[in-house]
TrEMBL record:
HAMAP family the UniProt entry points to: NDH1_NuoH
Keyword 4Fe-4S: no
Family designation: Belongs to the complex I subunit 1 family.
GO terms assigned for molecular function: NADH dehydrogenase (ubiquinone) activity; NADH dehydrogenase activity
Keywords recorded for this protein, A-Z: Membrane, Mitochondrion, Mitochondrion inner membrane, NAD, Transmembrane, Transmembrane helix, Transport, Ubiquinone
InterPro entries in UniProt: NADH_UbQ_OxRdtase_su1/FPO, NADH_UbQ_OxRdtase_su1_CS
GO biological process terms held by the UniProt record: aerobic respiration
Transmembrane segments: 6-29, 74-95, 107-129, 141-165, 177-197, 226-249, 255-272, 284-306
Protein name: NADH-ubiquinone oxidoreductase chain 1
Membrane topology field: Multi-pass membrane protein
Pfam name, any one: NADHdh
Catalytic activity: a ubiquinone + NADH + 5 H(+)(in) = a ubiquinol + NAD(+) + 4 H(+)(out)
Subcellular location: Mitochondrion inner membrane
Species: Euwallacea fornicatus
């Protein structure tokens, strides 16, 4: 029992360190890709081709002066970024790498529950800042996240009806012959767009509309608080890329090909940001309530009946 606890603690620590290093180099990749999209070089001064730029940014952020709005609720103002970062790291607990690291049977349900908790940190960060801009940014972000969670759950249920399991690793087993990308092609595209909206990324980054909201719910944050919100966002992007790769692109976790696919999906996030303009907010809401919700409901009924047909057929 003691050995198991030590193993879980050690693998968890290694996983967190790897996630943070991955986030650091994802920021560098984003700045490089956006640079080449804009026909410029991007960071290239620190180290070979700017390899040390993420670590320089981290040192700069954590050593800057911490600004405190006098009228803010200080305790919640401090704790919101910490919990945001904690939830982003907690998501990775359900994904085992080379070990049995918490590979439990309800891991998918656990991931969806933790993803939903991230909503509270955003609304609390905006409210505790006691700033109109931060509050407006957090309210827009919350409306967007809650709206897309509804259709996202229905989309994910269609996949779960096929594997009859809440275990993330079972997606690997069911995609040995063919990827779910081909079986669920419309749903896979809807899933990717919903993930983009869930992570507040372009073209759905309405929490950060510079023209009207300055920087959104994190406008009053600086130094470590801003860095934690930033880390949480990019850790979520990496995790969504991992979930999309496992669910749709059918790759085994312990293979090199899996990490190639994961990198390509993460690159897609950046590519979209550099290519598409920001969507209009009312069109975003129209898209989810008038398009995605009815389509995902109809496809859920179709896939549920189809999977039940196969159960009866092979009994």
């Amino acid at each position: 029992m003691l050995l198991d606890l030590v193993l879980i603690s050690m693998t968890g620590l290694i996983q967190i360190i790897c996630v943070l290093v991955g986030v650091a180099f994802l920021t560098l990749l984003e700045r490089k890709v956006l640079g080449y999209i804009h026909l410029r070089k991007g960071p290239n001064k620190l180290g070979f081709m700017g390899l040390f730029q993420p670590f320089s940014d981290a040192i700069k952020l954590f050593t800057k002066e911490q600004c405190l709005p006098l009228s803010s609720n200080l305790l919640i103002f401090y704790l919101s970024p910490v919990f945001s970062f904690f939830f982003a790291i907690l998501l990775w607990v359900g994904v085992p790498f080379f070990t049995f690291h918490l590979n439990f049977n309800l891991s998918f349900l656990f991931v969806m529950s933790v993803m939903s908790l991230g909503v509270y940190t955003i609304i609390l960060a905006g409210w505790a800042s006691n700033s109109n801009y931060a509050m407006l940014g957090s309210m827009r972000a919350i409306a967007q996240l809650i709206s897309y969670e509804v259709s996202l759950i229905l989309i994910l249920l269609s996949f779960l009806f096929y594997i009859f399991s809440f275990k993330i690793m079972d997606f690997q087993v069911y995609q040995e012959s063919t990827w779910f990308l081909f079986i669920f092609f419309p749903l896979s595209l809807m899933l990717m767009v919903s993930f983009l909206a869930e992570t507040n990324r372009s073209p759905f980054d309405f929490a950060e509309g510079e023209s009207e909201l300055v920087s959104g719910f994190n406008v009053e944050y600086s130094s470590g608080g801003f860095a934690m919100i930033f880390l949480a966002e990019y850790a979520s992007i990496l995790f969504m890329s991992l979930i999309f790769t496992l669910m749709v692109l059918g790759s085994f976790l312990n293979t090199f090909m899996f990490f190639i696919k994961l990198s390509l999906v993460a690159f897609f996030w950046i590519w979209v940001r550099g290519s598409l303009p920001r969507y209009r907010y009312d069109k975003l809401m129209y898209l989810v309530w008038k398009c995605y919700l009815p389509v995902s409901l109809m496809l859920l009924l179709f896939h549920a009946s189809w999977s039940q047909y196969f159960v009866i057929l092979f009994m």
